[in-house]
Amino acid sequence: MSKSIDDILSIFKDDERVYVNNEYIIGKIQELALKYDEKLISTILNNSKMKLHFFIEVGGALIFKREEFIEFIGGKYYLEDSYTKYRNKIGLAVDNSYIKENRDVVLNWAYKDCVLEGGQDREDAKQDEVFYNEVLASDDIDRLYENKVLTNFKKFDENGESEALVINENDNLIIKGNNLIALHSIKDRYKGKVKVIFIDPPYNTDNDSFNYNDKFTRSTWLTFVKNRLEVAKQLLAENGTIWITLSDVQAHYFKVLADGILGEENFIGDVIWQSRKSVSNDTFISLSTNHVFVYAKNKSVLDKNKFRLKIDTSKFKYDDNDGRGLYRCDPFDAPNERKNLSYEIKNPNTEEVYLPPEGRCWRTTNEEYNRLLSEGRIAFGRKGTSKPQLKVYLNESLEEQKGVTPTTLWNDIDTTTNATKDLEKLFGSKVFKNPKPEQLIERILEIASNENDIVLDYHLGSGTTCATAHKMNRKYIGIEQMDYIEDISVERLKKVIEGEQTGISQSLNWQGGGSFVYCELMKWNEIFINKIEKANDSKALKYIWNEMKEKSFLSYRVKVKQIDNNMSEFEELSFEQQKEFLIEILDKNHLYVNLSEIDDITYSVSDEDKKLNKEFYGLK
C-alpha cells in the first residue's frame, strides 16, 4: 500500500479524538482500532483504498484486519515525518522500529512488561510540556532501581527548621523525587513495615491536578500505576492495607490491574465516597462520587473485629435508670432467611405478634431471645408498642471494643470543597485543585491503623495524608516530585506542627507538636530534564545539548558526532520535538545519583550527606 502520510491520516482529520492541536495522535488511533471503535472503523471502511487493504470478505461479511492496521499505522515504513526521519538517521532505531515503539504488543495494555518513568514538573503546565513520560523496555533498565543518594536533609519541629543531624526509625519522612525511584530506594528500610498506604493517583483526565501528554494513553497510565503498585505491595506489612481513590474514568480498568498484582482474593471493598455536594448542569449525569478501592496485603490474617470505626458515643442516648447506663437500640432482625432464626415474637405490652421481615431472620435463636428478654435487653420502641429491638449498652461496647462495621457508602464526611476551603484558610488562596479532605484520611486510618503505625502516600500532592497522620499520631512517609512539595506540602506540615485548626484539628483537640525530616533524591540527568522542560527557545536547547555532552549520561545508542553533524535537521524539528528528543537520549538509569557512586568526586556528595545516607540505608 503506497500512500503518503498526509493522504492516509487525512481521513481521520474530522475526528477530534485523534486529531489534536493540528497533530495526529497515533497511539489513540491504535487504541480505538483495538476496541473496534465504530466511528473509526466506519471511517476506514468508507475509504475505498483503505477498505481494500484492511478488510477481507468472509461469507458475505467484511472482517476488519485489526492487527494488520495497528501494525501498519505504527510502522516505520509509514511514519516518515521529519522527526522520525531524524531519529532514524542518527541511530535511534532498533529492530526496524523506534525505541518508543519497540514493544511486543502495541496497545492491548501494551507496556505491562515495561517501566514507565513518569517525570513531573510544574503543576499548572500544559500537555507535552508538563508530563514527560517514557516507557522503558526491560533491557534499557539495569540501574534504575538501585538505591539513590539522598541530599538536602532538613528537620522541622516546634523550633522551626534545622539541620538533620541523625536519621532514625521514628522519624517522619518527606522525600522529593520521582516516586517510582524513591519507592525502590526506601524498600530495604521499610519492606513489610507499612500498615496503610493511601494514594490519590492522577486520574488521566483533564481535571487532574496536572495534565497529561496527549500521548499518555490508558495503556501507559496503567503501566505507570502498575510499576509503582508492585513495589508498594512489598512495603506493606502482612496485615497492611492499601487504599486507592479514583474516578469512574479509570476505576474499572484499575480494578482488573490491581487484582492481578495484589490478588483478587485480597480485595476488601469498593467504597463510594461522596466527593462533592453540588450538581453540575453541563453533563448528562453529575459526577458526585469517587471510588476508594481497598486491598489487603494478606486478607486472611486481618481481624474483622479490629477493622472497625470507633464507637460513636452520641448514638447511645437512652437510659432506663437501672444502673446499666446509656444504650442504643439496634434492629433485632438480620439479613438472610434461616429456619431456626424465624419464629414468632409477641410484644408483651400489646400482644401483637411479629415475624422477621421478608428475606430476613431474627438475630438469635428463640431460646437466646427469651434470655435477652428476661434480662431486660429487648426494647419495643420508646413507648413499648413497636417491633423488637436489641439494647446495646455503651459501657459494654467500650469494654469489648466493639466498633462499627464500615459500609461501602461514605456520604457523611467532608468533600473536596471542604478540603479546598481548608487549604485557602491555611495559605490565603486556592493553592491546589481537588484536594482530599482530612476526614477521609482520618476514617481510613481509624479503620486500618493504630497509633505509631507507618502510613505511606507516594502521590503526596497537597499533603493531606501526612497532615492527618501527623495529627493522629501515626508515623508517615510522603513522596512527591512536583515542585509544590516545598511550597505546599512541607509548608502545610509546618503549620500542622504549629497547631493549625483546619480539617480534623478541632475534633481531635490538636495542639501542635511533632517533627518530620525532609530530603531529596540527588539529581543528575534529572537536572537536564528540568532544564529542557523549562527552556523557552531552540537556542537554549542547543546550549543545554552542549552541556549534556560534557556532564550528562547519554543513552548507549546515542552517537554524539552524528547528532552534531546533523544539527541542521535538528533545527528543522518543532520546538516540542527538539525537547522530546533531548529528553529521550538521556540515560534514565542515571536520573539520580546511585548510592554505589556516593564517593565519586563527580557528584561532590558532602560528608554530612554521606553520614546520613549510611544511617538511612544501614551501611557501616
UniProtKB/TrEMBL annotation:
Keywords from the named record: Methyltransferase, Restriction system, S-adenosyl-L-methionine, Transferase
GO MF entries: DNA binding; N-methyltransferase activity
Claim: S-adenosyl-L-methionine is one of the keywords in the record: yes
Record has Chloroplast as a keyword: no
InterPro entries for the chain: DNA_methylase_N4/N6 (IPR002941), DNA_methylase_N6_adenine_CS (IPR002052), N4/N6-MTase_EcoPI_Mod-like (IPR002295), RM_Methyltransferase (IPR001091), SAM-dependent_MTases_sf (IPR029063), TypeIII_RM_meth (IPR022221)
GO biological process, one term: methylation
Gene3D superfamilies, per database record: Vaccinia Virus protein VP39 (3.40.50.150)
PROSITE patterns attached to this UniProt entry: N6_MTASE
Domain DNA methylase N-4/N-6 as annotated: residue spans: 194-490
Domain Type III restriction/modification enzyme methylation subunit residue range list: 37-92
Family: Belongs to the N(4)/N(6)-methyltransferase family.
Protein name as annotated: Cytosine methyltransferase
Organism name: Clostridium septicum
